[in-house]
Design brief:
This protein is α/β, with parallel strands linked by helices. The protein has nine helices and 15 strands. Keywords: DNA-binding, Repressor, Transcription, Transcription regulation.
Amino acid sequence: MLKTERLQEIMLMLELDGQVYSNEVKRKLAVCDMTVRRDFAELERQGVIERFHGGARMQDVYRSQERSHREKEIIHHEEKLKIVKRAVDLVEDGDTIFLGPGTTMALLPQYLKADFLRIVTNCQPVFDHLNKYKKNWKIYLLGGEFRETTQSFVGEIPQKSLLDMTFQKTFVSCNALSEQKLMTSTFEEGQLQRLALNHSVERYLLIDHSKIGKKDFSVYYQLQDMTAVITEKQTYDAKNDKIEE
């Protein structure tokens, strides 16, 4: 079993009652004591668990159970609208942009003002909204392995497609922002967003303040490498401004 698979299995075990014992992990994953200690150390380094003698428990700040896309749609809706209305002012006619998964991204198409755009996404609800509100836009949906929770496509197929693309602007969100790191719930989703960001000239994080100071399982980007952070309160220079919780 690969390390990433072991870490995900440990997190699933932790979600059941908030803590797990080393012997339990050792038995279920068929690994040695040293491997369990190393995996616990990695999760502790990421800030998602704290260790105790004989086991580990989940940190209170860690988002242990990711909400579904439908659940997220009704949470902080007004804040998301404010964020979107700031973000659309950054999009200009002729831009090629990437929109990551998320309920904030799904609100963007309705408010986009530019008439001529090329837009790529890996998120089904974002794609559906783009089709609903499209003007003279060329719209591309990257297919692959479908992730039900976020209604998005991940894996090798969309990653290979992104390798041959470049963007003027990429807009992403995240489940948590802590210690200058963007975090999400799975490696696969983070990898895809990282690839899109790396192939973009400008990189924008759209996030409401409920996610600032929280932590999640997988770090996928460094805040200092973003262009700006757009919240419901203001737009921050990612390199120079301090983001208030």
